[in-house]
Write a structure and sequence with these properties.
By secondary structure, the protein is an alpha/beta fold. It has eight helices and twelve strands. The strands form two sheets. Strands 1, 4, 5, 6, 7, 8, 9, 10, 11 and 12 form a ten-stranded mixed beta sheet that branches. The chain has a two-stranded antiparallel ribbon with strand order 2-3.
Length: about 280
């Protein structure tokens, strides 16, 4: 899969989803001064939920206070259509986590960067830091199966390039009526149903910190064999035509950078330095 498409679809894994349809009662509306309309998934920890517990909820509250605006949510499960329909369809005006450079939106400069993590129990005796470790061919490995566009996730694609296929244990990417949960893959590591899992960093960090046993997280930034990137920049996004709003959002992110980094750490997101060439000095393009 082309790298730009992978950046575009990564958010489908970073933000997991319910079945479509929760936005039926909401209606499109024009951008209104004094009202901050945020696109958010209603049940998508650690990013957002209707109880206001997620990282995006706290960031939205910070933004609303800074702009002296009334905070409103357009609750829309993150699957196909989150950006194309919820954001560009004017159900909401801002998405607080989006792949940097997303084609269908105007994104800010990245405000955090994370990567997939190899996750295993601390008491397992394992010491695996790369996909090239030969032990992976004999271990039960948990992977999420599909991104939002129904393509395989980076771990599933890359492991096949290493000849690791018959010992993969697949986990659904999306919620299903509260039966399937994003922490299922971490719980499988805890319960020894798999030996390790390869999980998007923010999910891995958040749920591992809440696990009943100590877990090891080793970030994987890239894979030289498959050429598939495992580390991604994350931005906030507006509609492409709303460049003024996007630039105001960039000003907020710059001014509150230290507070936002503190918030990211509170949710145990494993963070990587943002490359200088992905954070130019002017407005994000």
């Amino acid at each position: 899969m082309h790298v730009s498409r992978l950046h575009t679809t990564l958010i489908g894994l970073a933000l997991l989803a319910l079945a479509p349809g929760l936005a039926r009662a909401q209606r499109p509306a024009v951008l209104t001064p004094g009202i901050l309309r945020i696109c958010a998934d209603p049940d998508n920890m650690p990013f957002s939920n209707q109880a206001g517990d997620g990282f995006e909820n706290k960031l939205a509250e910070m933004l609303a206070a800074s702009w002296n605006s009334k905070l409103e949510y357009a609750w829309w499960p993150v699957r196909r259509g989150f950006f194309a329909r919820a954001l560009n369809g004017r159900y909401c005006d801002i998405a607080l986590t989006a792949p940097t450079g997303l084609d269908m939106a105007a994104t800010t400069r990245p405000y955090f960067r994370s990567a997939y993590a190899i996750v295993y129990r601390k008491d397992s005796g394992l010491d695996i830091t790369s996909l090239g470790d030969p032990a992976l061919k004999t271990l039960r490995i948990g992977v999420n199966l599909l991104l939002a566009n129904a393509e395989n996730t980076p771990p599933a694609m890359a492991l096949s390039a290493h000849g690791v296929v018959g010992n993969l244990v697949g986990f659904e990417t999306f919620y299903s009526d509260s039966v399937l949960r994003p922490d299922d893959i971490i719980n499988a590591v805890v319960d020894k149903n798999v030996d390790l899992a390869i999980v998007w960093g923010p999910l891995a960090g958040y749920f591992a910190a809440r696990a009943p046993v100590p877990l090891v997280l080793n970030l994987v930034e890239s894979d030289s064999v498959s050429g598939i990137p495992f580390a991604f920049n994350i931005s906030a996004a507006t509609r492409r035509r709303d460049r003024g709003l996007r630039d105001s959002l960039q000003t907020f992110l710059d001014a509150r950078s230290a507070d936002i980094q503190t918030l990211l750490r509170q949710y145990n997101f494993p963070l990587l330095p943002i490359p200088q060439d992905s954070a130019p000095g002017g407005p994000a393009q």
